[in-house]
Amino acid sequence: MYPPLIKQNFGDSDDKLRAASPMTYVKNAVGGPTFLVASVDDDKSKTSREASQALIDAINLAGGTAKPAILAGKSHFTANHELGARATRQA
User: Fold this and answer.
1) What is the pLDDT of residues 17-50, one digit of tens each?
2) In a domain, 78, yes or no
3) pTM greater than 0.85
4) CA-to-CA distance for 52 and 38, rounded, in angstroms?
5) In a domain, 49, yes or no
6) Of the chain's two ends, which shows fewer C-beta atoms within 10 Å, N or C?
7) What is the three-state SS of the chain?
8) Given this model, what pLDDT does residue 66 score?
């Protein structure tokens, strides 16, 4: 599912794909703020969670700081839709 979307948005040359990948820049994380990498916990997102964990591991290995945030009960769509939305109070 992802390769066609990636090609559409970033092209298919190795140089463009490398430039678009966060993994290319993990060495720049040293001395920066802590990265909070969000993932959802549904079964369809296992590959995405694994990629998120690989990024976290790479940042930490490079000397930066990264932590996971698993968004329980959310899908990729609801997580993106609710990002930055005003919180509502429930009684």
Assistant:
1) 999 999 999 999 999 999 999 988 887 778 888 9
2) yes
3) no
4) 8
5) yes
6) C
7) CHHHHHHHHHCCCHHHHHHHCHHHHHHHHCCCCCEEEEEECCHHHHHHHHHHHHHHHHHHHCCCCEEEEEECCCCHHHHHHHCCCCCCCCC
8) 97
Could you tell me if residue 26 is inside a domain? yes
**Whole-number pLDDT of residue 89:** 61
Closest CA to 48 of 64, 36, 35, 37: 37
Domain range for 46 is 2-82
Number of domains in the chain: 1
- Please report how many Cα atoms fall inside a 13 Å half-sphere around the Cα of residue 6, on the Cβ side: 12
Residue 61 placed within a domain: yes
CA 64 – CA 30 distance, rounded (Å): 4
